[in-house]
Amino acid sequence: MSDMPTKILLDEKDIPTHWYNVVADLPSPPLPPLGPDGNPVGPEQMLAIFPGNLLEQEMSAERWIAIPEEIREVYRIWRPTPMFRAHRLERALGTPAKIYYKYEGVSPSGSHKPNTAIPQAWYNKQAGVHRLTTETGAGQWGSSLAFAGQMFGVEVRVYMVKISYQQKPFRRSMMQTWGAEVFASPTDMTNAGRAILEKDPNNQGSLGIAISEAVEEAASRSDTNYSLGSVLNHVCLHQTVIGLEAKKQFEKVGDYPDMVFGCCGGGSNFAGVAFPFLADKAAGKNVRLVAVEPTSCPTLTKGVYAYDYGDATGYTPIMKMYTLGHDFMPPGIHAGGLRYHGDSPLVSQLLHEGLIEAVAVPQVATFEAGVQFARAEGIIPAPESCHAVRACIDEALRCKQTGEPKTLFFNLSGHGHFDMASYDRFFAGQLEDFEYPREAIEASLAHLPKVG
Known about the structure:
Elements: E1 7-8, E2 18-20, H1 43-46, H2 52-58, E3 64-66, H3 69-75, E4 83-85, H4 87-93, E5 98-103, H5 114-126, E6 131-136, H6 140-152, E7 155-161, H7 162-167, H8 169-177, E8 181-185, H9 191-199, H10 207-220, E9 225-226, H11 233-239, H12 241-253, E10 259-263, H13 268-282, E11 288-294, H14 299-302, E12 304-309, E13 318-323, H15 345-352, E14 357-361, H16 363-377, H17 383-402, E15 407-412, H18 420-427, H19 438-445
Parallel strand pairs: 5-15, 6-7, 6-9, 7-8, 10-11, 10-15, 11-14
Antiparallel strand pairs: 1-4, 2-3, 4-5, 12-13
Helix pairs in contact: 2-11, 3-5, 4-16, 5-6, 6-8, 9-10, 11-13, 12-13, 16-17
């Protein structure tokens, strides 16, 4: 048996006191969000849906931003999260590589999402806002914000992508247990939803549509703000507790990763685990940071780096990011999450500047990796996390061929306990690989806003 521990644990005093802001270490400053007229959007326009204290973080270039003690107090419910050395997976693969993973599934909602839900609910409460709207796809974000709202006495209304609402009913139950209202998007409750249903009464929904509905409601009510679970700078900022803790855990065992993997839909998961290592890369460390996405929603690997709306109908500012086009509609047969048409502007900029890498993995192989991991390590990963597992296993198998003893690290960003319907479909042979057609992407990209 190895002398290396299986669980690498920290004490509550090791919960980070500050979030790390990658903007401070970018080679060039981020490009501003634009309005429909092509001019930069000022803070006053964003104040219609966000509190001023979060907008300060969104636009900050300070390297370290203090975490209020009230937020750290709630973090103590589940943080610091454990890091594991995947001894059994290494043996199953026969690889000379060392494999580590950070396990974010120990949070109350079972994913990494409360890392930003808790701050967002708290900052809104501090600003006098007691009601939030949001969207959710697979349900991790909606359930996390529902939990956070309950912690601070903030009402939460969730627009859940219809196909996920149907596929994952128990995520809806979680949200309702924590007091949130949940509706299948598109709904007939908003102008955006009604317009989409008029064109297609059977529309299965998308994150872009659900964002449109949530933003529209927040903008139309003075008592309501909007809360976003990924993409924006302040969301990526809050998630850096993952990588900051991981660096302490690697120090504890005297190791350091050659490669860091995180699944990537909107980008907060990948940002949370990878951005703190980017600071080391900027200081000369040789570490590769790999964002992993599905071939059926290949934003970073097949999209274009351009200004685009963050939602489907143009309510949000226009952001410079890798995008498949804001009216991109992911296939309903895709069971693994990560379906957003765009990506975090910060993640996009880092990829564009060659500081990180991106790979796309097919759906069936992704679930195969999740099952292989579960049979070796015991934890059933969320379908989203399986993408990072797949890419990490692929690299471990390359190491087996080359004999390289690399140190590989990935973020296991949640458990799959509420996603077993997707596993059922995998075992029944009902999942299929879908590579989004280039012509469909080009058709969607033809509708990009004419700015930038």
